[in-house]
Amino acid sequence: AQAVQPPRQVDSSVEWPTLLARLNVQAMAQQLAKHCVLDAINEHQVVLRLADEHKHLQTKMATDNLAKALCDYFAKPMKLNIVLGKVEAATPARIEQEHKQIRQQAADESIAQDAFVREAQQKLGASLLPESVKPLTGA
């Protein structure tokens, strides 16, 4: 027999990126979630805010899948309410983009300071193709 999971306690101090990382969401539901910020959460409802420029992500299927993931995570019925409006805080998508930019900048600096690369540039007249420099995955 499969053990029934007790409902998780709703922590109103939880941050949306942290909660999102724990949810089982993929595809369009994940994209929708990544472009939202958490407006409010209580024992029965999650309220997310989505910027108007991303409202195309709010399809019925994506919304339904995200709502199901929230119900599954909390092991009880949870209502999902997504409101459109101005998003001031950093969304998970924006945070992810900033981390990518930081990793790219570090990769650019690392390759520019590499002794072999510098020697090749000086002695052979080699040049770097900026678009060819990629950060290591997982770094």
Estimated helix fraction: 40-55%
Distance between the termini: 42 Å
Strand order of the largest sheet: 1-2-3
**Helix run count:** 5
The average pLDDT is 84
Q: Low-confidence spans: pLDDT under 50, at least 5 residues? A: none
Summarize the structure.
With about 140 residues, the protein is an alpha+beta fold.
Please provide a written account of the structure.
With 139 residues, the protein is α+β, with helices and mostly antiparallel strands. The chain has 5 helices and 3 strands. It has helices at 16-22, 27-34, 60-74, 92-113, 115-124; strands at 36-41, 45-50, 79-84. Strands 1-2-3 form a 3-stranded mixed beta sheet. Helix 2 (27-34) crosses helix 3 (60-74). The two termini are 42 Å apart. 19% of the residues are buried. The mean pLDDT is 84.
Keywords:
single chain, alpha+beta, 3-stranded mixed sheet, 5 helices, 45% helix
List the helices and strands and how they pair.
Layout: H1 16-22, H2 27-34, E1 36-41, E2 45-50, H3 60-74, E3 79-84, H4 92-113, H5 115-124
Helix pairs in contact: 2-3
